Amino acid sequence: MEQQMADISKAEFEVLEVLWQQYPAAASDIVERLNKKKTWHEKTVKTLLNRLVKKQAVGFIKEQRRYLYSPLFEREHYTQAASKSLVERLFSGQLSPLVAGFAKNKKLERDDVEALKSLIDQWESEHD
Amino acid sequence: MEQQMADISKAEFEVLEVLWQQYPAAASDIVERLNKKKTWHEKTVKTLLNRLVKKQAVGFIKEQRRYLYSPLFEREHYTQAASKSLVERLFSGQLSPLVAGFAKNKKLERDDVEALKSLIDQWESEHD
DNA sequence: TCACTTTGATTACAACTGTAATCAACAACA
DNA sequence: TGTTGTTGATTACAGTTGTAATCAAAGTGA
């Protein structure tokens, strides 16, 4: 399960996103929630759900005619794996070059900086 | 060119990596350098080079029978775009949740923390 | 000059993706 | 009860990707 997570495609991830918002959910609900942002045909969403089930990212229980779907791992679990994988590929596992890139790019906002500072304080209070 | 960068596949990126190490370079050199780490068939590497040329990520000049290839943008340019794209997809553009994930995961090393601190100092000295 | 080598170009082919359409089973309405 | 709509399952189909093999042109050694 740890490895398959990487194999979730972008479209599949968007389906997972709305599932994490609220689950269990029927396909029709998922379609409806998705279409606040995108315009995917119902059939498309069903296909993506099917693929997610095959990939063991989503499970379901039957409620009569229809299924109620649920994600099989937490969003945070996925984001951590995806982040780690990117940082490994691009920066041999070092996080700071990524942050440096953001800083250089003016992509770093004051809120981010404040959040980073408390993360660092926290980290330092935990490590010696 | 800014957008196409995202469309560089993982295998293609590895070819770019060794090109950035040193260029211009002939296909044979690239194959040789790549095979310090992997075992890709020469034909495979040629295919990837071709695709990179089509995607305008790599250019070349002819030197008689063979080509000398060069990357058409900097590594940092690519890593910044890829980082930004991931952070947007996973954290709506906010960097700190990514760092928080690393911290939670024990993936944050002392070196990283020190680097982050100087980045923050730097940022703060530049902003008001 | 002829067979062989090297190089880029073209073609191959299966798996994965995005984006659906069709099918089969059941439910609901007329 | 026959028709229609809904739901998941199966099939479709082109584009991308990983991983090469084949082809054609040019250079090389005998």
Short description:
2 copies of one chain form a homodimer. The first copy, chain A, is mostly helical.
Question: Topology of this protein?
Answer:
Two copies of one chain form a homodimer.
Chain A: H1 10-21, E1 25-26, H2 27-34, H3 42-54, E2 58-63, E3 66-71, H4 75-91, H5 96-104, H6 110-126
Antiparallel strand pairs in A: 1-3, 2-3
Helix pairs in contact in A: 1-3, 2-3
Chain A binds a DNA duplex (30 and 30 nucleotides) through helix 1 and helix 3.
How would you characterize this protein structure?
- The structure is a homodimer of 128-residue chains.
- By secondary structure, chain A is mostly helical.
- Chain A folds into two domains: 4-71, Orthogonal Bundle (Arc Repressor Mutant, subunit A); 95-128, no CATH class.
- Helix content of chain A is 59%, strand content 11%.
- Chain A contains six helices and three strands.
- Chain A has helices at residues 10-21, 27-34, 42-54, 75-91, 96-104, 110-126; strands at 25-26, 58-63, 66-71.
- In chain A, strands 1-3-2 form a three-stranded antiparallel β-sheet.
- In chain A, a hairpin with a 2-residue loop joins strand 2 and strand 3 (66-71).
- In chain A, helix 1 (10-21) crosses helix 3 (42-54) and helix 2 crosses helix 3.
- The longest helix of chain A has 17 residues, at 75-91.
- Chain A is elongated.
- Chain A starts with 9 loop residues before the first helix and ends with a helix.
- The interface between A and B is large, with 42 and 42 residues.
- The first copy, chain A, binds a DNA duplex (30 and 30 nucleotides) through helix 1 and helix 3.
